[in-house]
Amino acid sequence: MAEVPEETARVAPAVFPKGCLAMRMRDVHGPVFADADFEELFPVRGRPAVSPARLALVSVLQFAEGLTDRQAAHAVRSRLDWKYALSLELTDTGFDFSVLSGFRARLAEADAGRAVFDAVLRAGGAAGLVKSGGRQRTDATHVPAATRDLSRLEFVVGTLRTALDRIAEVAGDWLVTVAAPEWFDRYTAQPEDSRFPSRWAARVRHDDQCGADGMVLLEAAWSAAAPPGLRHLPAVEFLRRTWVQQFRHVEGVVRCRHPQDNPPGLIRLRTPHEPEARTGAKRDLGWSGYKVHLSETCEPDAPYLITHVHTTPAPVTDLAALEDVDAEQIHHARRDHDIDLVGPVGKITNPEQATGGFFDNTRFTVDWERRRAVCPGGHAGVQWRDAQSHCGTPVTRVRFAERHCGPCAPAAPMPGPAAT
Asked: Where is the Transposase InsH N-terminal domain (predicted)?
């Protein structure tokens, strides 16, 4: 973005002599975003777009103040502090509010939302808000799914209905030969608009009937007479996975599974309208959707700043999201992000190493740039080789000369420098 226009730079400090959040952000961090960061999101030809750098900053200010798209667009047009932060003339009329949703859609389609986060994080680091070796903490919070929770009967009926709708769009003539006449009455209405039986026994029979109908459809879709590619439709595949989880054959009859026979929450499907949503719980809170794990700085003399965001299915525990630090993570953090990862390395699991039968990795000095390792006895390795472990993880193997290792006594390790 350009420099703050002269008139805006003169009037804004006069109106806000003590400053405000948007103006302080501009004064401390500068423009934060650049149009070049988002050039891949926009075509080279066509109508000139609103500056993506400005739209990114508007999105940040909008989130900070909890504004809707209409309110944010109005703030760009009418608020002096926002014009100062966005480097706009006082007479700038802004843009239509729909531009913001279009910008977010471009970020989502290109999976480029991380670019906004990384730019803010770089600005915070340049201002000294993120320091090397500083303290951070990680916690998780819930993210509800965009769709409402369904009862079990609503779920299976809705899943079958969705599959029937998709098949009707691509192979309607074939579906007519498969569907029973009564299917029209059972699955025309949305589950929430249907009047399911109130008595428990009747609901179970309705559930079992739905399971049998779905099984007929699946068997037909997998038959040789089915149109090519029908079984690969996402809705049909979701129907198959759901029926595996919710129904079983009992003496040749399709019956619903007992709740205790359902799969674990991490793979248990919840709705055909949001296949990735799962059910999770944390303390007294239960929800269907996802879980977002956030890491933030927690220095007592500085504002807190989020440094990492990781989204998982709802049932993933906080502990499972925090992997043990290992050599691969340390290496990738340095190589890919220029970060020195510090933390407790996983415990030694080799029983011979744990009992002193070998020197562990803390007894060697490793110079990664020169590809050189020195053992506790002061001898350098004679071979350095990049390889892979049995599970495909990249590893580095260093071989030492037998004449140096033979006289050495692992049971009484010699003092030596720690590994780097």
From this structure: 33-106
Is the same domain home to 159 and 81?
no
Query: pLDDT truncated to tens, each residue of the chain (420 aa)?
Result: 678 999 999 999 999 998 899 999 899 888 888 888 888 887 766 666 788 999 999 999 999 999 999 999 999 999 999 999 999 999 999 999 999 999 999 998 888 888 888 888 888 888 888 877 778 888 899 999 998 888 889 999 999 999 999 999 999 999 999 999 999 888 888 877 777 777 888 888 889 999 999 999 999 999 999 998 999 999 999 999 999 999 998 888 999 998 888 888 889 999 999 999 999 888 888 899 999 999 898 888 888 888 888 899 999 888 777 665 566 666 766 676 666 666 656 555 555 555 555 677 677 888 888 889 998 888 898 899 888 876 667 788 888 888 888 777 554 443 433 333
Q: Residue 411 is which amino acid?
A: A
79 shares its domain with 192: no
Residue labelled with tokens 């703030």: 75
Range of the domain at 391: 351-405
CB 309 within 8 A of CB 287: no
| 219 lies in the same domain as 119 | no
Q: What is the count of structural domains for the chain?
A: 3
Report the Cα–Cα distance between both ends of the chain, in Å, rounded. Answer: 43
Element (H, E) at 374: strand 372-374
> What does residue 273 show for φ and ψ, rounded to 5 degrees?
-90, -10
Q: What backbone torsions phi and psi does residue 4 show, to the nearest 5 degrees?
A: -65, 125
DSSP 222-251: TSTTSPTTGGGSHHHHHHHHHHHHHEEEET
Task: Please name the amino acid found at residue 1.
Answer: M
Q: Could you tell me the two tokens for 383? A: 């071979």
Buried-exposed string 243-281: b where 16+ CB fall within 10 A, e elsewhere:
bebbbeeeeeebebeeeeeeeebeeebbbbebeebbbbe
Q: Residue 62: helix, strand or coil by DSSP? A: helix
Please provide the DSSP assignment of 123-144 as one string: HHHHTTSS-TT--EEEEEEEEE
Domain assignment present for residue 246? The answer is yes
Burial bucket for residue 225 (CB in 10 Å: 0-12, 13-18, 19+):
exposed
